[in-house]
Structures
1.
Amino acid sequence: MPAQYKYRAVTVDGRFRNGVITAQGSDEVEDFLQAQRLIPVSVSRLSDRRPITLFGFLKGDDYERLIQFVSSLATMYRAGIPLLRALTIIKDSKDDPRFTFVIDQVMMSVQAGRPLSSALAEFPEIFSDVFVACVAAGEESGKLDETLDELGAMLERELELTRNIRSAVRYPLIVVGVMTLAVTILMTFVIPRFVSFYSSFGAELPLPTRIIIETSNFLVSYWWAAIICMAGIGYGIRAFLNRPGGRRWLDAKLLQLPVFGSLLIRGNTARFSMMLRIMYKSGLPLIRSMEILTATIKNTVYSGEIQKLAEIFHKGMSVNQLDGAFRYFPAQALHMIAIGLESGNLEHMLRQIGDHYSKQVLYTSRHLTAIIEPILTLVLGSFVLLLALAIFLPMWNLIKVFNH
């Protein structure tokens, strides 16, 4: 079974090259490197585990470079420029050494007689299985320029979708981070000064103050134990999530979160619809397209529902009879897909689904701050109230001591 291998090699002029390719085994990787006049230094198989991530999108810089690459290649290919010549022009205009190296390797593979899709498949960290499958279908149908245009448009929309989701979660993450920093500073620097001040009067301290003081004393005296405990918890969580059952548990909990869960479901639905439409339009069979998408969606629970949907289509069953079988995949999207299949207009329906849920993600992300602001205000207010009680109640007791 093909797997991804990470390699490090040396060129004939002594420069190091790193990359990831798909091969049947390490021997095949070494043969490929030697054919490219590269001397293998190390070859190691990458883990089959999916990365722990909320959304599973590329980095913004990778997306932008990929969009530029697709747009430039489609324009020149449509203008009648030979593929190798077009790749040469694109390579000369790239400033990023890594992407330039990738294009150079793709050129060498194409020059050796391999299809463009096969050459792109050697770099799965940049060109996903969906991307490669669409290019392969475009090459086979003779409509590579149209396929590249569709891919470029899809990548632009997906980049916009990714930015909307990231902007939506940025504000609460910043608030939580600032709150954590403030608590750490108060517990380690501010509270110990109040302790020395109050203890000099021998007055009885109220319960909120005693709780804050004991917590502060523990952090100041046993900070190393807190770090070890946090590291142990982190290691345990990581080991738990590396197990299939643990990963599915986390992915399910993420989809069940208030507001954020709905945002993830809508974002994944929009992304799934956009990619499935491109693959279906490129001429790939529907079942095969869904199998490829199942492997590219990072949330294992949502991916499982896509796989279940593919099995239903494979058995020839109707989606309308199985509404209860899907917990997270939106019922509206299921019915629209069923209508598209019945009417023979699936491509149009998938476009409508992608547009609809992309707009929902955009609307939710723009109003997310207003939605969660009351919750954050309540949490911050409770924290401030606790600190105020811990600091000012002892002052009230000291005033009583002085009056007596």
Note: Residues 312 and 336 are 15 Å apart (CA to CA).
2.
Amino acid sequence: MSSEYANEFNEFLEDEISAVKSYDSALDKQVNSEHKDALGECRQAHAELVKKLRTCVTQLSGEPRKDAGIFGGFNVAVENSASTPTDAIALLEQAEAERLVRYEAQRKIVPPPVLSVLESDLLPSQHKTHLMVSTLLKEITPIPGQ
């Protein structure tokens, strides 16, 4: 495998590092223990992907990125601006949805070794975390007019 593959894995790694940092920020805002448990589970799923992707990069003799890059910093700044626990969860849900769309789109353009990890690890986990946060947001967001 080539360094090109390491670069592909590093781009996914930046996304996952950003997700972990966003969950850290959101967890600081939560007071409800059930919400903390659900968000903690999502955070853990992203942290496990960080480890997996770092291993992939290292196995390719690449240097794993250590931070979330410029957009990761922006995402964390946005998450830190959430004024309520519900706002923080809404921002997480939006980020999860955007990440899922990006990952699905990557299926068509990444090389086979990267596609294998994308389909076996990243996408299943991303679908799960998106569903968890979406469900949580629906449970805590009042329906207008009711």
Note: Helices lie at 3-29, 33-59, 69-80, 85-106, 112-140.
3.
Amino acid sequence: MNALFVFLGGGTGSVLRYLAGLWIGSAAFQWATFAVNAVGSFAIGLFGGWASRFGWGEALRLSLTVGLCGGFTTFSTFSKESLALIEGGRYSLFVLYVAGSVALGIIAAALGFWISK
């Protein structure tokens, strides 16, 4: 039964990711992927903290963390866009994108977890 909740959360997260990409668009920098990964990192920290604090059931926790956040964030797109920056010779932007994404993701997850406590 938990797999159904992950499936529903994942589908919702994927649609939200698609809509965020349309809304934010693409430019010289991969803002849509950068933003959804930061927001998703914050959300997984927040949901994880709330799940622990309020004793959420396994189905709700899985639906929101593994499903929604997993479907919303996108490591594969991040990897593809990083490779495209390397292939395009945009090494400085590559370093900024990768380092900024990882640092912001960790900070956002920690902030979400901290706020939820």
Note: The mean pLDDT is 95.
4.
Amino acid sequence: MDIKVQTLDGGDAGSIEVADEIFGLEPRADILQRMVRYQLSKRQAGTHKSKTRGEINRTKAKAYKQKGTGQARHGAKSAPQFRGGGKAFGPVVRSHAHDLPKKVRALAMKHALSAKAKEDGIIVVDALSVSEPKTKALKARFEKLGLSNALLIGGQTIDGGFALAARNIPNIDVLPIQGINVYDIMRRHKLVLTRDAVAALQERLK
């Protein structure tokens, strides 16, 4: 499959051939869902915590006598049924992360790229660079390309001026090739790749 290559100004810069086994698959929603769930679960803090009855500092004195009142037998005000008592089966500090096989993660990346290619959501540019870090000028160039909600993936490093110019534009994310991930691909309308990014992806996923 061939994809047209453009410049950031919308000019023609030739074309690039991409592998059908990476960009031409029939997308599977189940694999994409598993990968997105894996990513979001892994980044949850898991710092939620409530105190149990053993951690509540309340009186252990008997509230009333054992018999004759017609009420239940209680020996501590820290019991869950009392106001101010501990919580029964409350949240504890833990990791929400779960395992996902490496082959499934690689396959999910292929299906994410294929899903974008199928809906004409991939744009390949020759490079992500600007002569001066001006947000207004870069935003105008994005408008020429029809980019209002996009993920831009560069090579091993991102041009410093380009990163500065793009960071204040809403709904635009810029990442080096090492940071590409399924969740960010799926949450943005367009995926912009440089020639170097396409080559690195094909080398990684072949």
Note: The mean pLDDT is 94.
